[in-house]
Amino acid sequence: MQELVVISGKGGTGKTSLAASFAVLADRPVIADCDVDAADLHLVLSPQIKERHEFRSGHEAVIRQDDCTGCGACLAHCRVGAVLTPAVQDEWRMSGRMRMNCSDCAYCERSCDSRTNAIIGEMREALGKARSAAYAIDPIACEGCGVCVRFCPEKAIDFPERISGEWMVSETRCGPMVHARLGVAAENSGKLVSLVRREARRIAESANRPLVIVDGPPGIGCPVIASVTGATLVLAVTEPTVSGEHDLERVLSLTRHFDIPAAVCVNKWDLNPEMTGRIEDKARKAGARIVGRIRYDRAVTLAQMRGLAVVETEAPCIEDIQHVWNELS
Ligand code: SF4
Ligand code: SF4
Hints:
By secondary structure, this protein is α/β, with parallel strands linked by helices. The protein folds into 2 domains: 2-58 and 164-328, P-loop containing nucleotide triphosphate hydrolases (Rossmann fold, 3-Layer(aba) Sandwich); 62-159, no CATH class. Helices cover 37% and strands 24% of the residues. Strands 3-8-9-2-10-1-11-12-13 form a 9-stranded mixed beta sheet, sandwiched between helices. Strands 4-7 form a two-stranded antiparallel ribbon. Helix 8 (189-206) packs parallel to helix 9 and helix 10 packs parallel to helix 11 (273-285). The longest helix is centred in the middle third of the chain and has 18 residues, at 189-206. Residues 97-102 and 128-132 have low confidence and may be disordered. Bound molecules: iron/sulfur cluster (SF4) (2 copies). One iron/sulfur cluster binds at residues 61, 77-78, 80, 82-83, 137, 142-148.
């Protein structure tokens, strides 16, 4: 079984359009959309979802309101300002404290490095009121370090696994597809990418399908590394711009580092032929194989709007894409 991963140093180079076209051209592929932070291959391949699974990753602190005595220990120890004190904020609003300049966001209370329980106590005293409500955790800000759980004297903080997204197994007109959706502000996209790839490979092996086509994430961070390690071939798609050139250098240094064979194609090459030549020279020197150029073609956008892969339309650039595919096969 072969695994082709399509990546780009930056978003918007046409990576997903190419991956969708390859899915149409390939013989019985399994498709994996590993761009889990901004998945969009499903817009073209219209998957029919067959299985849906939760993606759990890391933990989050949750205060049991009934058990919280409001001691403030969690607030004092949380280094990312995730502990919220709604009662204190309410008291500030009611007392008019710092009314002239304060917008009551409580950022100072949550984020001051030198804060202690004593300071918080003084603040309460200054307000002349005892707090009445329990503390709470901002789930977006919480990084799941567990420190507040450790220091809560009442053991009033639960620490469940965080549901960070979901992954799906679907059917498309090109074959099975594994794809995912990462939750808002959720982390560990690299872990989710690994899971999607693993599942796609498992399906390919069990159904005796010869190829997995991976639509990888942009950039060179953790999700990209999770997408390319162990792949048969990486196709880096770039465009003839200064940022495209720079980002391709970074991508190729990544594939070199992990010793993965790399191929390069320049999309919209005719927008700057001179730059295209320069990028190809650099890519060759970096050890990559040049597998073709794809012309700028407005029909690509029209295909996306119709929910079709480019090679399913009459777009003039089809012959360029077919050429790239032949070079890769
Ligand atoms: S440390 Fe525990 S008891 Fe104290 S405010 Fe935080 S959750 Fe409530
Ligand atoms: S788990 Fe860590 S980041 Fe989350 S609220 Fe507790 S101390 Fe703050």
